[in-house]
Amino acid sequence: METKKIYFVWDYTQRDRDFWNEHFENWLPKEIIDAHLHIAKPEHRIRTQTEEMRHQYWVSEVNELITGEELYNSDEFIFPGRKIKRVAFGTPTLDMDYDANNDYIEEVAQKYQWNGLVVLVPGWSQERVLKEISRPNILGVKPYYSMIGRDDSTRDRYLEASIFEFLPHSTLEVLNDRHAWVTLHVPKADRLGHPDNIREIKEIRRRYPDITLVIAHIGRCYSKEHATEGILPLADDPGLYFDSSAVLNPESHTIALKALGPYRLLYGSDNPIFFMRGRRQIHGRKYVNRTNYPFFFNKERESAEIEAQYTLMMYEDILSVKKACQATDNDNPEAIRAIFHDNAERLINRVLSYKNR
């Protein structure tokens, strides 16, 4: 097949199509909802990262902006023969014009009949929160600890923040009243399993039970240790959901499926980041991303023969879900359709049924 440009430095090749045909063509459902991805226009960026900041963290090097149009136009070869809908949001950083980015989310969601979340500013009044989530096709909010404040010296200035510092109670009251959706990227170096995260998530569920709460990246549980520490203490709450985005470890997905079952997991790509070509290796509680592009973080390259076998990391993510389904007796059409479509559709309809009444 002809090599196709995806975006940034990434192309779609015959290797990717072969990978799709081998693993997914007869496995994935015909309709898919991607419940976690970021879109923005280049003009939304109001502050350019320094090279020092780009080199602090691998995501900063690969996270070039992608428009909704570019993403939509890639579907015919990224997801051949599939109908794709999305829950999209902007880029949660104060380096962006978040007002313009949120306007764009609404515009794209209406254009393609997707749904969206607005990036939340912690200092918004309750009136502002209500106004933002009342937009057409908007389900709720995407909070993130980087929205607390800017620090040009480190990306982790607010990593150890309380959830309530960037998702305050005043906002939660409005979201609960409106039965809105929250996709929560948990803070802390210890990830989901940090005792403060467990306690605060349980508090949100207790005090604000009408919020549709989705924990992003399965709580950033990329290792089996983090997955065990984070997922198990929350497994007994049937109203708490998790998205699969950026989790390339089959063991993490297996722990999630065993603890939660297939009806509380939502597929998410975390694109455009995981258009990156490569794979992830897990070493204890840490991971290493391998890719074929000479980024600053990519210092230990693998051989040319191994790199030639790389595919899109979003495909590696989906393959990890497939392996976990096979390991947990969930390798059946109903469970697969639930993870990749039906669960998200059910939650979207629940939010919209209240919003549109």
Q: How does this model look, in words?
A:
α12 (250-260) links the parallel β9 and β10. This protein has helices at residues 14-23, 51-54, 58-62, 68-78, 98-112, 126-133, 163-166, 169-177, 195-207, 217-220, 224-231, 250-260, 304-307, 313-327, 333-355; strands at 4-7, 10-12, 31-38, 83-89, 115-119, 138-142, 181-184, 212-215, 240-243, 265-266, 277-283, 286-291, 311-312. By secondary structure, it is of the alpha/beta class. The strands form three sheets. It has an eight-stranded parallel sheet with strand order 3-4-5-6-7-8-9-10, with helices on both faces. A three-stranded antiparallel sheet has the order 12-11-13. Strands 1-2 form a two-stranded antiparallel sheet.
Features:
single chain; 357 residues; alpha/beta; 8-stranded parallel sheet; 3-stranded antiparallel sheet
Strand content: 15-25%
Q: Supply Rg.
A: 19 Å
Distance between the termini: 48 Å
From the helix content, strand content and strand pairing, which structural class follows?
Answer: alpha/beta
Concise overview:
The chain contains 15 helices and 13 strands.
How are the SSEs placed, and which strands pair?
Layout: E1 4-7, E2 10-12, H1 14-23, E3 31-38, H2 51-54, H3 58-62, H4 68-78, E4 83-89, H5 98-112, E5 115-119, H6 126-133, E6 138-142, H7 163-166, H8 169-177, E7 181-184, H9 195-207, E8 212-215, H10 217-220, H11 224-231, E9 240-243, H12 250-260, E10 265-266, E11 277-283, E12 286-291, H13 304-307, E13 311-312, H14 313-327, H15 333-355
Parallel strand pairs: 3-4, 4-5, 5-6, 6-7, 7-8, 8-9, 9-10
Antiparallel strand pairs: 1-2, 11-12, 11-13
